[in-house]
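Fold this: Potassium channel domain-containing protein
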Amino acid sequence: MLIDSYFNCIIEFLTQCSMKRQNVRTLSLVVCTFTYLLIGAAVFDSLESEFEAKRYDFLQTLKKNFIKKYNVSGEDFRMMEIVIIENKPHKAGPQWKFAGAFYFATVVLAMIGYGHSTPVTIGGKAFCMAYAMVGIPLGLVMFQSIGERLNKFASVIIRRAKRYLQCSHTEATEMNLMLATGMLSSIIITTGAAVFSRYEGWSYFDSFYYCFVTLTTIGFGDYVALQNDQALTNKPGYVALSLVFILFGLAVVAASINLLVLRFMTMQAEDAKRDEQDAQNLAAANQTVTFDTEHSTSYNMQGKLLNNSNYTNEFDETASICSCTCGTRCMNHEPFADPDFRPTDIIASNLSLKRASV
C-alpha cells in the first residue's frame, strides 16, 4: 500500500512538472508575440508618423486653397468628398454584375477583404455574413487540400532529383519541402508583380507589395486590381488571370505557411510527448527500494520482489547456522562434513533458523 501511494505521487508530480513546462512555453510565445508587436509599432511610428503629418498639412492647405479659389462652403466641400469617395469603386465598372460579384465572392472566401466594394442593402449584408460562415471554412479546407497535393508533388520531384544527383539520403525532408514551397511562392509573387505592374500602371515595388498583401490575406485595400478603365467588363482575360493568381497563389502560400506552422506544432507536440514518456519511464523504472528489516529485502517500484535479492525463508531448514568467516573447516563445519548427518535435534526444536549476516 505504501509503495502504491509512493508510485502514484511520483506520477502526479512529474505530470505537474510537464504541465508547468508547457505553460512556460506558452507564456514565452505570448511574451515574444507582444514584444514583436511593440517593436513593429515603434518601427512604423518612426517610419510613417512624420510623413503622415506632412501629408495632412499638405491636404489641409490644398483644401483651403480650393475653397478660397472657387468660393465653396465647407458643407458643399464635404458633399464633394462624399461623392468622390463613393464614386471611386465605379471606375472599374458595375461592381455587382456577375464579374464584379464573382470577384467580391472570391475576396470574401479567401478572407482578403480589400474593402473596395461592400454590400449596402440589408439583404446583401445578411447574405454576406451567412455566405462567409459557410464559404470561409470551405475555402480553408480547399486551400489546405491543394497545399497537401502540392507538397506531395514537391516531395516526388525532390526524391527524383536526389536520386539523379546520387545523394546518400533520397527522402524529402520538411526543410526541403519548406524551401520548395518558399521558392514557388516567391516565383508566383515576383511574376504576378510584373503582370500587375504592366496592366495597372503601378511601379514594380508597389505591385510586389500588392501581391504580398493579397496572398498573405492582409488585404489593406490601398492597392486593388481591376479597378480602372472598366476592367471588370472590358478585360475578361485580365479578370480571369487575376482570379487564378489569387486562388493558386493562396494555395501555394498556405502550403508554405502551414509547413512552417506545423513544424513548430510538431516540435511542441514532440516535447510534450517526450515529457510524458520521461515521466512514465521514471515512474515505471525498476528502481530498488530496500526496507531496513531483519531480512534486508529488496523490492522494485511495483512492490515485486527482485529475483536477485538475497532472501532466505525464515524457516528454511537447510540454511547454515555458521557465521564464521574461516577458509577451512572449523568445529562448526565438522558435523556437516558427513553427508549422512542430519541435525534432527535442531530441526525438532521450536527454534527458527535465520540466515546470519556476513
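Confidence is low (pLDDT under 50) at residues 298-321, 332-338, 344-358. Strands lie at 289-290, 298-299.
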